[in-house]
Amino acid sequence: MLATPFRARAVLATLTLRVRAWSLFAELSVHNLFTFYDLAKLLGFKQITLSDGRNWSHRIKLK
Question: Domain spans of the chain?
């Protein structure tokens, strides 16, 4: 599934679409403002690391 960094970015984009469709964000009228990264930060994550487990990895530090 995460064969390339580009596919991994597509997965993150899909997760953002799902987060924005979440009823909590819609009720607060922030569904156009927040992304998957924002949800991860709210849940207490400090970073997100994507990897295919062998050839590449990408780390995103949440500030």
Answer: 5-61
CB-based contact 52:2 (threshold 8 Å): yes
- Using DSSP's 3-state secondary structure scheme, residue 47 falls into strand
> Which region, left, alpha or beta, applies to residue 53 given φ > 0 means left and ψ of -120 to 50 means alpha?
left
CA 12: distance to chain centroid?
Answer: 4
- The CA-atom distances, in angstroms, between 63 and each of 16, 18, 24 are 17, 22, 22
Look up the pTM and report it. 0.72
- CB count within 10 Å of CB 10 equals 13
Residue type, position 24, single letter: L
pLDDT for 26-36, tens place per residue? 787 777 778 88
